[in-house]
Amino acid sequence: MTPTPSMEDYIERIYLLIEDKGYARVSDIAEALDVHPSSVTKMVQKLDKDKYLVYEKYRGFGLTPKGKKLGKRLVYRHELLENFLKVIGVSQENIYKDVEGIEHHLSWDAIDRIGDLVQFFEENPASQERLRDIQNRNSEGL
Predict the structure, then answer these.
(1) Which pLDDT band, with edges at 50, 70 and 90, does 142 fall under?
(2) This prediction's pTM
């Protein structure tokens, strides 16, 4: 089964918590995603059923290899989209909200092409300067 956007959010957060702290608790996930602990428990049970994590009641949980692989890819997608929006000149205060708004609506093919574009701009600073010149010219004309 393909994970839903909500499942992806949970997997991404769990992956980051485990990477950062070595573990992920229901309370940590609830706080990070601004949801009730009961909602986290329901989702953790669903993710266990779908083999993204192993859940033992009252003992905690960990990501399966499938869950780790997806978690790593979701974190990559999020960071790539943040970098992309920075490269194209989106203001810092809008980046997080914009990434959250678009990350679940792009195919992995689109993500890969965005990765190519970010790499192109990183390897060709003159092109990024040219983009800034165009943006400045266009904003002056408004």
Answers:
(1) low
(2) 0.87
